[in-house]
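Justification of computing resources. Each target in the renewal requires a structure prediction run like the one illustrated here; the chain below, 288 residues long, is used simply to show the kind of job we budget for.
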Amino acid sequence: MGVVRVDEDRHPGLAAQTLGEADVVAVTVSQHDTADVGHRSPDLGERALQVVPVSGKTRIDEGDPLRQVDQVGSDDVVAEAVDVRGELHGSSRCLQWLRYVAIMANVNSHEGVAMPTPDRTSLAQIVTAGRQILDATGPASVTMQAVATRVGVRAPSLYKRVRDRDALLAAVAEAVIDDLTAHLDEAGEGLADLAREYRAFAHRHPESFRLMFTDAAPYAALQRSATPILRAASALVGDDEALDAARLFTAWSTGFLQMELAGAFRLGGDVDQAFDYGLQRLIAGLTA
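Resulting C-alpha cells:
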C-alpha cells in the first residue's frame, strides 16, 4: 500500500477505497502531513491521508512521489515497515493502524494467494555464526547486527529466535560448553586425559573458553560439563571426596589456562612442561 495525499472533494471515491492485493507495501509520510490517517479537519481544509494499493510495484524512481518508502520484508519486524519522514499529530495511534494494514497486505503474492512466511534462518545457524564471530574477534563483536549479516538476514529477524543480545550470548555460551563436554566425554576416563583435552580446547577456542566463565554461561550447561570430571574424580578418590577433588582439579587447570592464554607466564621455561608437572603433582596429591 502507499500513503499519499489526495483531495477528498476532487476525488471522493478514494475515501471509501479498500485495500487491494499488493506485493510491495510502501508507506510514506510527508513532513507537511499533519492529519491522522483517515481524519480530516473541515475547518482547515486539510487533505487527508489515504491508503491506496501499489500492486506489483517493485522499484521506486527518484521522481516518484512514493520514493520515501521502506519495503516490508517477509521476515522483518513490523516496526521496519513504516518509515516516518515527518511528525504526525496522534502518531502513536496512526502508526499502530499503519503497521496492522502493512502486515496484512504483505502476505499476498502476485496471484493474490496468501503465502507463508519462510524461515530464512534457524537458531542453530545463528548460534554457529555467533561462535564464529566470537572466536575471530571476541565477545564485543557478537552483536545482533553482526550475526544477522553473517547468516544473511536483517537484524530484526533475529528477534524471532533470540530475545536480545544477552540471550544471544547465552545461547553461544551454552553451545560452547556443550561442545567442550562432548570432547571431554570422548577424551578418556582419567583426570590427566581430561586435563589435556581441556587445555587443547582452550587453545583452539580461547575467546569461547573465556566466555564460559562469564555471566553469559547458563548454569544447566555448566552442570552438564562437570559430569565427566566428577566421574573421573570419583574413580580416583571415591564418591565421598569426588566433589572436592573435582573442584581442586578445575580450579588449578582453569587458572593455569587463563594465565597461559593471557601471556602471563613471562619468566621463561617450557610452559608445556610446567602444565604436565602441575598435573602430575596434583594427581599424586589426590591419591596420596
